[in-house]
Amino acid sequence: MTIDAVLAGAGLKAALPPRLSTLEVTGLDYDSRRIEPGWLFFAFAGAHADGRAFAQQSMERGACAVVSDQPAPAGFASPWLEVEHGRRALSTAARNFYRHPDRHIKITAITGTNGKTTTGFLVDSILRAAGNTTALIGTVEYRLGDRLLPAINTTPESLDVCRILDDLRQLGGTHATAEVSSHALELGRAWGFAFHTAVFTNLTQDHLDFHETMERYFAAKSLLFNGGNGVLPRFAVINTDDEYGRKLKPGRSVEPITYGLESDANLRARKISSTTNGLEFEVQFGKTRFEIQSELIGRINVYNILAACGAGLTYQIAPDVIARGIAACTGVPGRFERVDAGQPFAVIVDYSHTEDALRNALAVARGLNPRRLITVFGCGGDRDRRKRPLMGEAAAAGSDQVFLTSDNPRSEDPLMIMNDVLVGLRRFDTPVTSEPDRANAIRLALRAAQAGDIVLIAGKGHETYQIFKDRTIHFDDREVAREVLAGFGYRKP
């Protein structure tokens, strides 16, 4: 494909020089280490490095030109193409280069603070129950047909999404489901994608280290629905029990489906039965009624299931097929995941790392009627400090005993992070043990547990690492819990 075709609509600040406009482009990348002869290199600022610093390396590897939203470094003599917005240009170029896979693959985009991953797994399960070959892009994993790929970001760069969609199209696939984060929307990683269905789960305090205010955080999420992302979705599935869901205003051409338990929503759950074995309820959508049975637990999963049902309905999937897809999704890694080694108390690992998510997880656990509820949690470093005392308050309010520890401290002192959390914990009389070593905190909590208790290990969920200032180590809450339980003599055959 010629360079002028690849960059059509990409926001070039100046016309292409004649000698470049008909040049054949054989690939694209934003990582200079992957550049091959004839490729375009996209240089924009990342979280840890400025791509312009690697422009010369890309040329030495055979790049035909560099595309950037910043001027060329002094003395750079190779072709430099300046654009209005680097990541939007990459998204446009990627969709051009891969011949607009988003026009051939129907994509469900899911955004919100909590519930994105579980909702994504549920939507994908419904689509597969309907006989489709699918892709799933999210926090826990990327799935392409029957193949699992490692997940790098909740929402990868647009080029990576296009590659997955192109691979899916070559497999004969028809549908993809993607978590779309507020960072991705703000930065332009999802710019211009023609989403079939956009889902809004909820909005609670998180990522204010990046967005600064809830208003800006909400504005970033809203881009997916109001045309600020370049293209409007065909359908919007919105949780109107959430205050921000009620404020969300999709574009005029968008067909909305609202869902909830308490609001006057189009899609509702009735006759809810929630037990330790899962959920049963009736879905009501206009005159349509159908029964849901799921192994997922708790009220929060009623919302996730309703969101997935709404997405399924936008594809005109029959209610019995939707119900079959819901039933087939028996769990999500690190989302209220049980660790069972035959011990007489329950151990649950959950990703809840915001105040609202932690309150929800504790409410679900409390609904299982434990003798005591013991919580292990911490807060991440280099992230919004304002949520730390709020999470402490949530843990103390919902637990009978708390073990405060480290999450991913990153560049911060773990003890300083824990001090911020203690401000909220001390508003209650809940017994608290502070132990910065996460593995030891889990060991202490499991040692304290007795028959009939529930130990909730919160914050990291599916993650298999822990990030410190000077290193990243392998760390999996589930593995640590199993090892501790084995040390106590619990081994399930």
Short précis:
The chain has 493 residues and is α/β, with parallel strands linked by helices. 33% of the residues lie in helices and 21% in strands. The protein is globular and about 75 Å long.
Structure, described:
The chain is α/β, with parallel strands linked by helices and 493 residues long. The chain folds into three domains: 3-86, MurE/MurF, N-terminal domain (Udp-n-acetylmuramoylalanyl-d-glutamate--2,6- Diaminopimelate Ligase, Chain: A, domain 1, 3-Layer(aba) Sandwich), CATH 3.40.1390.10; 101-328, Mur-like, catalytic domain (UDP-N-acetylmuramoyl-L-alanine:D-glutamate ligase, 3-Layer(aba) Sandwich), CATH 3.40.1190; 337-487, Mur ligase, C-terminal domain (Protein-Tyrosine Phosphatase, Chain A, Alpha-Beta Complex), CATH 3.90.190.20. Helices cover 33% and strands 21% of the residues. The protein has 17 helices and 23 strands. It has helices at residues 3-6, 18-21, 55-60, 86-97, 116-129, 158-170, 182-187, 208-211, 214-226, 243-247, 299-314, 319-328, 355-366, 387-398, 414-425, 438-448, 477-487; strands spanning 27-29, 39-43, 65-68, 80-82, 106-111, 134-137, 142-144, 147-149, 175-179, 197-200, 235-239, 255-260, 267-275, 278-285, 288-294, 337-338, 346-350, 373-377, 401-404, 432-434, 454-458, 465-467, 472-474. The protein has an eleven-stranded mixed beta sheet, with helices on both faces. The longest helix has 16 residues, at 299-314. It is globular, with a radius of gyration of 24 Å. The relative contact order is 0.09.
